Amino acid sequence: MSNFFGGFRTENYKVILASVLFLALCIFFHINKLSSVNEITVTEKGIKRTTLVSSKVELIPYSSILRVQTERVPGSSSKAGQITTGYFESVIYLENGEELLISPDHFENYPELIVTIRDKVGNLA
Which residues have a Cβ under 8 Å from the Cβ of 53 and sit 6 or more positions away? Predict the structure, then answer.
């Protein structure tokens, strides 16, 4: 064993330690970011939100939704011209003060989700 470890210099240990620390920090931040990834399912009783990392399921009844507000996010442009045209995203405001952002960046079926949620909320009013 001493022949194997005897060939390493102190600088090698520092590089290995720094690499392991950097890798651990990257993994931590990726797991932390994944904890905010949700799956939304629209049901007859409400919106079922499932957190993908912890598999925690929360049912948000339609009666607890105060309003659904859709906003246009403007596109960006540069000196060469317009880069993106922009997009719409919706914020669902709940009675408990929480806000649920539904964006086409996070959900491929964004239009269907918002139309269905608005229809369900509109039927309660």
Answer: 31, 34, 35, 37
